[in-house]
Amino acid sequence: MLRLAYRNLFQSKVRLAMSVGGVALALMLVLALDAVMTGAEKRLTAYIDNSEADVWVAQSGVKNLHMVSSWMPSSVTGEVEDVPGVDSVTPIMYLTAPVDTKNEQSLAYVIGLPEDATMGNPWNVVGGKAIPGRGEAVIDSSVAERSGIKLGDKVKILGQKLEVSGLSEGTSTLTNSVAFISMADFERVRGSGQVVSFVLAKVEPGRSPEAVAERIEEDVVGVTAQTRVAFAEQERRLVNDMAGDLLAIMNLAGFMTGLAVVALTVYTATLARRSEYGVLKALGARNARLYGVVLAQALLSVTLGFAVGLGFTLVLSAIVPSLDSNLPLQVGAGSLLKVGTMSLIIAALAAVLPIRQIAGLDPATVFRG
Fold first, then answer.
1. What is the residue extent of each domain of the chain?
2. How confident is the model over 309-343, as pLDDT tens digits?
3. I need a surface site. Which of 57, 220, 288, 355 has the fewest CB within 10 A?
């Protein structure tokens, strides 16, 4: 049955290319949309994920970065460091503010770093240095490239003109980026050394971050402490709550469109071989065997289309970031499983529709005319 389906499918190379190509393009649309959503979500929490902190300590009630303000007395840094189980700490300052370059203004998470910062630094520096000194800034390389900014040029952040001393990669999203300046420059605008936004804590080897976070909240007044994983999850949940419905509708529309094209392609390809099935019936093939051939042929064409569509998507995932785009694509295992399973189910259903016509097919019609 599989051999017959294979021979029937590969009988006409042009028809095969059209069938597999239609399925591949439809599934590429679905996979690409899922890849955009997966990549955007991962980039959203890139700073938190790469902070190297086991626990994030913020002002009481603050549980994420997006659209929040967290200010605590600088004395909290020492109090957190004294909590049993804490190995080291790094205080940081934080505000959402524009970065003014030569040609544009872009929104950024502005991070103020102390000179001896061991956590919260840019994790992938592609030029210059990682920790900015006084009068310096580290900005995202894609922001710099779009604006024609190079190392040594000036940008304006928090009302101060700062020299670009470093370029980082992977610190931008569709809507903003992450910029790093010195704690001293940040304090000129806000704080005067009396406040910090967050305290990043590294726990001692063998200690549980969850247990240490609970102990910090017990011992330090007026703070909320979360593990890095929990803090990142809160960030994703907030942004997804704000834009999740729109993204979900777009993804669902693309998914349904792709599957509709798959169904139409399989249905058309099956009916196009109607005469071949008539010949098989004339030779004595039972309906059950014909049904098996139709289903096997549909599943083979979708499998081939899925493989080609996945290849196209992986190529796009490699090409798009190189085009100076803040649109990251990441193909996830969950997406592959979802799209693959649904494609096979749709293909089977699409093949069943013309089966009724094949079952009632009069073999004599094949020889007329």
1. 2-44+243-367, 61-221
2. 888 888 877 776 666 555 667 777 777 787 778 77
3. 288
- Token pair, residue 114, equals 């102390």
Q: Look over the chain and give the mean of its residue pLDDT values, rounded to a whole number.
A: 81
Residues in CB range of 342: below 8 A, 6 or more apart: 255, 259
pTM: 0.68
Tokens of 341: 């399973």
Alpha-carbon gap, residue 58 to 157, rounded angstroms = 23
* Nearest-angstrom CA–CA distance, 125 and 140: 9
Distance between CA atoms of residues 180 and 306, nearest Å:
43
Q: Kind of pairing, strands 160-168 and 136-140? A: parallel
Buried b or exposed e, range 322-352, using 16+ CB within 10 angstroms: eeeebebbbbbeebeeebbebbbebbeebbe
Residue 369: its pLDDT value, please? 47
* Residue 143 C-beta-side C-alpha neighbours within 13 Å: 31
User: Does 196 score more than 90 pLDDT?
Assistant: yes
Of 27, 22, 24, 29, nearest to 269 by C-alpha is 22
The pLDDT value given to residue 178: 93
Distance from C-alpha of 23 to C-alpha of 9, rounded to nearest angstrom = 14
Longest dimension (CA), the chain: 94
* DSSP sequence for 303-325: HHHHHHHHHHHHHHHHHHHHTT-
% the chain with pLDDT above 90: 38
CB 199 within 8 A of CB 120: no
Residues 6 or more apart whose CB falls under 8 angstroms from that of 185 comprise 112, 132, 134, 135, 158, 160, 162
Structure tokens at 196: 């910090």
204: which DSSP letter? P
User: Given the structure tokens 């247990």, which residue do they identify?
Assistant: 211
Q: And the tokens for 321?
A: 């970031």
What is the distance between the alpha carbons of residues 166 and 130, in angstroms, rounded to a whole number?
A: 6
Alpha-carbon span 335 to 60, nearest angstrom: 37
Residue-by-residue DSSP string for 104-166? -EEEEEEEEE-TT--SS--S-EEEE-SS--TTEEEEEHHHHHHHT--TT-EEEETTEEEEEEE
